[in-house]
């Protein structure tokens, strides 16, 4: 018998002896049995629920074998009402089966009313009575809206905004000032037409000067080149 054979026989004999010894010790209760798998050990991965509707979040939770609970609702600008804002256990974390995961849902936000066309004082009162803040911006010239009227709002009408949120308003400064045209030296009827075309009101005063040509405008107020808002009265003095 060569050396290799002797070594192999010795190895298998030792292994058999060790196995038998373990078996005997287990039967005698001297060795603890192998531990059973822990049913509470983390095994399920928490899904991403943020942005989902409550129904979709529940369906995903069932598929992932976790228990979903709605812990509350809160204002969440930019989120659709009823969708998940955040969850108690981060997505991707492993938990035991049916581990509770609570979520916060976005609540329905109050709708911002339309205040375009209202005087700024009335618009402010209306918005503040509903719990909103108001931020009136710098007045902007507008040829169609009177001075002090609201011509724009943000958020727009019927959009949702949490109470205490700010509504920014654009306010009209009325029509922009325009240059008064020169009408001195023209016929009074033509002068009146030219002034009214650019939005001015016209009042004609007549004088009688023998040395001046009849029906011709002699003076005007405001003077030519001055700026005034449309609707301003321009007085022209004409010779009869």
From the alpha-carbon coordinates, what is the Rg to the nearest angstrom?
A: 44 Å
The residue-averaged pLDDT reads: 86
Residue runs with pLDDT of under 50 for 5 or more positions:
3-13, 15-26
CATH architecture verdict of the largest domain: 2-Layer Sandwich
Q: Total number of β-strand segments?
A: 13
Distance between the termini: 152 Å
What's the number of structural domains? 4
**Which class best fits the helix and strand makeup?**
alpha/beta
What is the CATH topology assignment of the largest domain? Answer: Trypsin Inhibitor V, Chain A
The total of helices stands at 4
Order of helices and strands: HEHEEEEHEEEEHEEEE
Strand order of the largest sheet: 2-5-3
* Shape annotation: rod-shaped
CATH class of the largest domain: Alpha Beta
Helix residue percentage: 10-25%
**Fraction of residues in β-strands:** 25-35%
What can be said about the biggest beta sheet?
3 strands, mixed
Outline of this structure?
With 240 residues, the chain is an alpha/beta fold. The protein has helices at 3-27, 54-63, 120-129, 188-197; strands at residues 44-45, 67-74, 84-87, 94-95, 100-106, 133-136, 150-154, 166-171, 178-179, 201-207, 217-221, 227-228, 233-239.
